[in-house]
Specification:
Elements lengths: L10 H29 L1 H24 L5 H29 L1 H20 L7 H17 L1 H45 L3 H43 L4 H11 L6 H17 L1 H27 L7 H55 L15
Helix pairs in contact: 1-2, 2-3, 2-6, 4-9, 7-8, 7-10, 7-11, 8-9, 9-10
Amino acid sequence: MQPAAPPTVAPFLRTAAAYAWRLLVVGTLVYFLFGLLGRFHEVGVAVFLGLVVTALLRPVADLVARRLPRPLAVTLTLLGGIALVLGVLALVGEAVAGERTTLVREFRDGVGRIEDWLQRPPFRLNPQALTDVQSRIGEFLSSHRSALVSQALSGAHQVVAVLTTLALALFCSVFFIHSGDRQWSWFQEQLPRSARDHVGIGGRAAWRTFTGYTHGIVLVAATNAVLVGVALWLLGVPLAVPLALLEFLAAFIPLIGSPIALAVAAVVALASKGPWVAAIVIALIVVIGQIEGHLLHPLVMSWAVRLHPLVVAISVIAGSIAAGILGAVVAVPLVSVVWSVHTALRDAREAEAKAEAGEAEEAGPGGPAPGSGGGPAT
């Protein structure tokens, strides 16, 4: 009696199973990696900021180092960058302090105008409802005073953590700018010889993409900030400089950062200048979004980041779910770097395969080429 033949498995099920267990392994590794980063996120943020500072200031330090010793060039470059950041923050603080009295008066009048506007058609809100909202806000603040104080104290703890992270980021950037290439060479020497070439190719592709993205996003953010600042200044909206700085920072979150910052500007315009100016600011949101999406990003970012807009959107949302605002900022450069490394290694493997095929064609069908050492021993 013939034994029963083993059941056959459809080829597509076999392929799906092979991909499924690999995806499970990769998903498990990514889960534990994010868990590890969650425990040491301050260190990860510091290293990331150090790399950003290095991408921005390394070309300047290299230029200064042509005339000065390398340590002195790095010191002057970092001090100049710190002075620039502190100068911008001082300008913003001075603008807020100078407009404080005017702002209080304009916002008080603006709130009254908004209430009158909501009471007229088409909203026709009951004035008593608006009064109840104000009273409830006051009651909430008075009843939760202790909770607000404790949150303020915890906020002070967060300030200490932020300052510590910034200090570590500055410390990392000093060594990255001064001798980052030597540190990378040392790291490669610790790897097995068979992996050094591939790690070198991937590392060069990753750094090229990261620096390109950093330079591009800073240029896009600066352009958006200038456009927003000039437009708000022409419209007479208060806090034009702080709102322009907010737009600069928000532009680091692709797709959703700029609209959120401009929405804040629209609220300020509504409270200070009325609904018509707020409507102009809302129109400004559309115009700047079109300029950013159809002009700035294609011209500035296409050579560094080759990702479909859908991939960018999914990356930003996934990063924000995983790690909040920080994840939204880091998601796109991280995905871009991973994709560039994959592309560079794939191209390297294809080049090696073509080279091997070319050598086999030169050897001919009769066996190895003369002198290759593959012939019979004599």
